[in-house]
Amino acid sequence: MTLRLNLELTADASGLRGEIKLSEQDLAQLKTTAEQAGAGVQASVGRMSAGVEQAAQQFKQVRASLDPAAAALERYEAQQQAVKTALLANVATQDEANRVLALAKSQYDSVVAAASGYQEALRGFQQVRASLDPAVAALERYEAQQQAVQRAVAAGAASQEEASRVLALAAGQYESTTRALAGLDQAAREFDQIRASVDPAAAALARYEAQQEAVQRAVAAGVATEQEASRVLALAAGQYESTTRALSGVDQVAREFQQVRASIDPTTAALERYEAQQEAVQRAVAAGVVTQDEANRVLGLAKGQYDTYVATAAKAAAGTKNFGFGAQNAAFQLQDLVVQLQAGVPAARTPPVRAALRDSGIVGRS
User: Fold this and answer.
1) What is the pLDDT of residues 82-108, one digit of tens each?
2) Crossing angle, helix 200-220 and helix 160-198, to 10 degrees?
3) Digit-coded pLDDT (tens) for 199-219
4) Would you say residue 282 has pLDDT above 80?
5) Counting beta carbons within 10 angstroms of the beta carbon of residue 281, is it exposed (0 to 12), middle (13 to 18) or buried (19 or more)?
6) Domain boundary residue, one of 247, 264, 281
7) Is residue 344 part of a domain?
């Protein structure tokens, strides 16, 4: 925009005065420009307001989709506004409006009460889950740390630099915990795999749990209906129960066999007694009833008792074996004696049978 300015100078005894004058055309142009600028500012403010309003509306929608209490409040406020509009338009009387508002208030109170119970149940579930799942507990602790730092920055209690440093430490702690837990999970999976490979009952349970999880994922993804899922789960449960019953019979047979073996084999009985002592000591340590030093001392005594018994049994078995060899040798010599006597060999020339019996240990020395 171009404006023409007229400068008029007046000189007198008091001095020189100047005055700038605009033509009517320039004044009109300046006014138009100012009005356009004002309209532009108003439009910009309007767009900003519309953007803020849209963001607020989107936030309300998200909050209502996640928070049943917030959704109920928005619905109740909309009902109140609709009743007011009806009253102003004379579409409804005051009595009708009061009755409708009372019903809306009752419905809102019911939803809020239910939502309060839901929130309490949710908090309880989260607490239980955090107490059982270290990964969830670590995540909740990290989120709480982030929120605390954000509140400190908003209140001016901490600078952004301090907040960044604290958040970096919290992130490092969380990542370290998750890495450690990942290693534990890997070890637990490997243990489960080994256990399943040697324990048919554990393998059946793992297979049944995997089937349940697969069915739940299928239902959540809409691949299977609830009715189909129930039917498949019933079949899986039947298969698992059949397997456990069969394995229970196998376990019973195995226990009976072990009992018979222990009753006729002292070494086996000693081994089972030693293993039972080890398990009892381990349970006592896990329950905090005894210290590890006390447990080690008891286990040392149990091991010494077991080793002594095994050594004694080994000596007894060796003696029995030697006696068997001696008796067999004496039997062969007696057989030779009978053959020689039947053949007419004089008794004086027969082997010294009694000496053989004495040497074999069947008769004592005189």
Assistant:
1) 999 998 988 889 998 899 999 998 888
2) 130
3) 888 888 888 888 999 999 888
4) yes
5) buried
6) 264
7) yes
Of 237, 264, 291, the last residue of a domain is 264
7 membership: H or E segment, kind and range: strand 5-12
In angstroms, rounded to a whole number, what is the distance separating the alpha carbons of residues 106 and 33?
57
pTM value?
A: 0.33
If pLDDT is split at 50, 70 and 90, which confidence band does 130 have?
confident
Cβ–Cβ < 8 Å for 209, 217:
no
Tell me how far apart the alpha carbons of residues 256 and 258 are, in angstroms, rounded to a whole number: 5
Number of other CB atoms surrounding residue 204 within 10 Å: 19
What domain range includes position 224?
A: 199-264
Asked whether residue 250 is assigned to any structural domain, the reply reads yes
Q: How many structural domains are present in the chain? A: 2
CA 322 distance to own-chain centroid: 62
How many helices and strands in the chain, by DSSP H and E? 10, 2
